[in-house]
From TrEMBL:
The gene is ytfP. This is Gamma-glutamylcyclotransferase family protein ytfP. Transmembrane segments: none annotated. Pfam families: GGACT. Residues 4-103 form the Gamma-glutamylcyclotransferase AIG2-like domain. CDD domains: GGCT_like.
Length: 106
């Protein structure tokens, strides 16, 4: 199993059902040294507002979220769900857990 840290839409049970056909059980955690940035993504019915994690110059900043256990197949589904505005990287969370997170695609 892989670990996936979510700070946004992937925490929604509705979105989880859409992507995984199940609701995930997660554990609260924090992503240290990152902050959230507003992001507009064009969707089928126009522009939508989202947030994206970006590295912070302030190492004390953090993002609260949830860590989920997911399979490699689940990760592939999320890769398809996330737009080209995001990229998946591995990070170390406050708990010491190594997890995947979607950050700004630069």
């Amino acid at each position: 199993m892989e670990k996936l840290f979510s700070y946004g839409t992937l925490r929604s049970k509705q979105i989880q059902m859409q992507i995984f056909k199940k609701v995930l059980v997660g554990t609260p955690d924090q992503l240290l040294g990152y902050k959230l940035k507003s992001l507009q993504i064009e969707e089928e019915f126009g522009m939508a507002d989202y947030v994206v994690a970006i590295p912070s110059e302030n190492t004390e900043e953090n993002i609260h979220g949830v860590v989920f256990n997911v399979s490699n197949a689940d990760l592939a589904k999320v890769d398809l769900f996330e737009s080209n505005s995001y990229r998946r990287v591995q990070v170390k969370l406050k708990s010491g857990t190594i997890a995947w997170v979607y950050t700004e695609n630069k």
